[in-house]
Amino acid sequence: MAHTHRWTLVLHLDGCHSSTSSYECSCGAVLSDNAERDLAGDPWAALWMEPVYETIDRDERGHYVKPHVEEVICFRCRELQAGATPRTIRLATFEDGSTWEVVDSR
Length: 106
Ligand SMILES: [Zn+2]
Ligand SMILES: [Zn+2]
Description:
Layout: E1 8-14, E2 18-24, E3 30-36, E4 52-58, E5 64-72, H1 75-81, E6 87-93, E7 99-105
Antiparallel strand pairs: 1-2, 2-3, 3-6, 4-5, 6-7
Bound molecules: zinc ion (ZN) (2 copies).
């Protein structure tokens, strides 16, 4: 019998350049939707992509260095700010273990 999935939002996580929403259907299927921020369509999205300032007192090998503040911004944020096309990746996992993935670029 054909079943029409009815997705219920169970989780929403905001990252710097994308947000992830997870949905569940009563049949046990799970859908997750990872959408990169569309700066052209939503100028407010840039608010999430501001660099973070972190106090650095260790170098990458864990050695102590004079504490200083560094601007940290992730690689993909930079790409999107430079005009890269945001992608939406939708991944569904069904109860029988099969998956279905859609990658969508605007
Ligand atoms: Zn279903
Ligand atoms: Zn980012």
